[in-house]
Amino acid sequence: MSSRTEVRVVVAALVAALCVVLFPGRAAAYPWMLRHGSTQCGSCHADPSGSGLLTPFGRTRGEQILRTHYGAPARPALGKLLFGLDAPEGLLLGGSFRNGLLVQHVANAPQQPDPRFLQMQADLRAQLTLGRLRLSGSLGFLHQGGRPTRVTKRDQDNLVSREHWIGVDLGEDRAWLIRAGRMNLPYGLRNNEHTLWIRSALRTDVNEGQQHGVAIAYAAGPDRAEVMAVVGNLQLSPDVYREQGVVGYYERSFGKHAALGVSGLLLHSAVDVQVGKESTRQGYGVFARLSPRKQLVFLAELDALLQKVDGVDLGTGWVSMLSTDLEAIEGVHLVLTGEARKLPLGTGTALGEWLSCVWFFAPHSDLRIDGVFQVFPGQGGGPTVRATTLLAQLHIYL
Fold it and tell me: What is the pLDDT of residues 337-384, one digit of tens each?
């Protein structure tokens, strides 16, 4: 490791440590909410599998147990829309604004990228419920990137829509939900660290990995599950790039603080957006959540990766993640994550470590700092590549 890389590693570690020492804990898509006995994601989110627009219960619970209160009692009204407004009955409203500063260093690279400001998310969300009928969607703005989510086609400064769907609640207790539209793919842990390899390798992140299709979800008692028939990302053109297939998961909780699940994915495209050829890709995995103590949560996922390109089997790869989330003091989380990845037809195993500090410092607000250290196998017998990333994010939601 070069001296510059060592300095960045030390800085990231010190920043994370200072977060724990100095900031006065409780630790929404947050799989670690299991520490509070929240095994069913749909109680806090409009999406039955978690992430995105919050329900009134989710807003109240976030104000009560998520942030630092500085010794004062929680004020549930602050969790409401715009810190105190009640939306009309049957209407959920929200918004999410996330910006970041990214610094990267690749060992032995002749040139290093400059620090970058990232306009990551500026989305408004809404859901209208009429009896058993639900209409849900989001509309946002991105200065750069986000091609899979765009609804306008400019080189930059585009409107984006990550989710939009129509659904019907079924069953006496509304345990079933059938939806059609653009939705998050129901696979594995619904976490918001979208660059983790368990999400990027499977393209199942909540940032831009959504697809159009029809899904049926079930959530009752200790069980939750969802299966989606994928017809492709209709915001991506031409249509030869769109994938068709099926994705789904099933999770069962054991008591209030442990859950185990399985996932499966099978998708085919005439032209894969990454390899430029006909492709069939598969993923099959297991994931788990465990909270032995309220302050501590373990998250784990292991997935097998299979892919055929132009009918040629590339073999089997795999990707894994193990994360430890410690709520050291109220509203402050220290997170240590290890990940490993071997792609089909890959030359070796890549390894990564994340050291993260997340502070829910005020109502509707959190600050996150990640130090990410990765080692990639060399291509064609070349040397390994070491990369260090420091990312700071400020997130505010309405």
Answer: 999 999 998 779 999 999 999 999 999 999 999 999 999 998 766 789
Give me the domain span that covers residue 55: 3-397
Half-sphere exposure of 386 (CA within 13 A, CB side): 12
Q: For residue 334, what are its two tokens?
A: 């220290």
Could you give the C-alpha distances from 316 to 302, 303, 342, 343, in angstroms and in order? Answer: 13, 10, 9, 7
CA-derived radius of gyration, the chain: 21
pTM for the complete prediction?
0.89
Tokens of 246: 């099926």
One-character DSSP codes across 95-141: EEEEEEEEEEEETT-SS-PPPEEEEEEEEEEEEEEETTEEEEEEEEE
**pLDDT tens digits, 163-198:** 999 999 999 999 999 999 999 999 999 988 889 999
How big, in percent rounded to 5, are the helix, strand and coil portions of the chain? Answer: 15, 50, 35
Q: In sequence order, what DSSP letters do the residues of 311-378 get, joined into one string?
A: TEEEEEEEEEEEEEEEEEETTEEEEEEEEEEE-TT-SS-EEEEEEEEEEEEETTEEEEEEEEEEEEPP
DSSP β-ladder status, 296-309 and 279-293: antiparallel
Cβ neighbors of 228 (< 8 A, separation 6 or more) are: 183, 185, 186, 211, 213, 214, 215, 246, 247, 248
Reference 395, options 41, 95, 160, 180; nearest CA is 95
| Rounded CA separation 249/256 (Å) | 19
What's the number of domains the chain is made of? 1
> What's the average model confidence in pLDDT over 102-117?
85
CATH of the domain at 141: 2.40.160.10
Q: Is the dihedral of CA 233, 190, 141, 87 positive or negative?
A: positive
CA angle 108, 114, 120 (to 5 degrees): 120
